[in-house]
């Protein structure tokens, strides 16, 4: 081997870890906070980056997903500062998902609808309450965002995608629970629960999903029991390999039941 060829091979090997380290990976950021002096006001937002068709992060075809947005509508909020650092003011959010219509989840999405371009928006029902929620919907409609209503068992990403354009070919996302019907009562019960898989890792997001009980089953129990149409038979098997679980309802006593956690 000539010295030049040897140096070329050496340079390739030295660069290989950097070149391949981001291949077929995704990133998940949990952006949460408690407002100063208001310990009961929890922000709840997650931002995910996907590698896109080329399979590599940090390239031009990457896509992103914003799940909920916390309770702050300000352009100076922690979420706004975070997203500005990621995509810049006026940047693009490829996919935005609302778990349910409580203001500590949708207020930040209202901010995002005014500050960024949103291509696709997902929810399980058209909600009937929330001033900023209605304003957010109007903002999204005004910018031509595509709306998608999801139900239990839907795939939102990966080769089995059957709702929307799909988030990423290398990332699978399936809705494990999504209450259908006319929204009312405790809106936490209506929270979407979604499992997102990339490679050998799985993430579970469920907003403020509730545990209910033996005589009044709710979101988590629907998955354990495979209850249709709010979940589907076999949904509980998707819990068993969960790697990262964002605790439902800020880890409240009304969620994250022992049977649900044990199944994971």
List its traits:
5-stranded mixed sheet, alpha/beta, disordered N terminus, 6-stranded mixed sheet, 264 residues
Structural class computed from helices and strand pairing: alpha/beta
Kindly estimate the percentage of residues that lie in beta strands according to DSSP.
15-25%
**How would you describe the shape?**
globular
> What integer is the average pLDDT?
89
Output the helix-strand order. Answer: HEEEHEHEHEEEEEEEHEH
- For the largest sheet, list the strands in their spatial order: 1-2-3-4-5-6
Distinct helical segment count? 6
Uncertain runs with pLDDT below 50, 5 residues or more? Answer: 1-21
**Main sheet properties:** 6 strands, mixed
Q: In percent, how helical is the residue content?
A: 25-40%
**Total beta strands:** 13
CA radius of gyration: 20 Å
State the end-to-end distance. 54 Å
Q: What is the topology?
A:
Layout: H1 3-21, E1 27-31, E2 45-50, E3 63-67, H2 78-87, E4 92-97, H3 103-115, E5 117-123, H4 131-142, E6 146-149, E7 155-157, E8 171-177, E9 193-198, E10 201-205, E11 212-213, E12 216-217, H5 219-225, E13 244-245, H6 258-263
Parallel strand pairs: 3-4, 4-5, 5-6, 10-13
Antiparallel strand pairs: 1-2, 2-3, 7-8, 8-9, 9-10, 11-12
Helix pairs in contact: 3-4
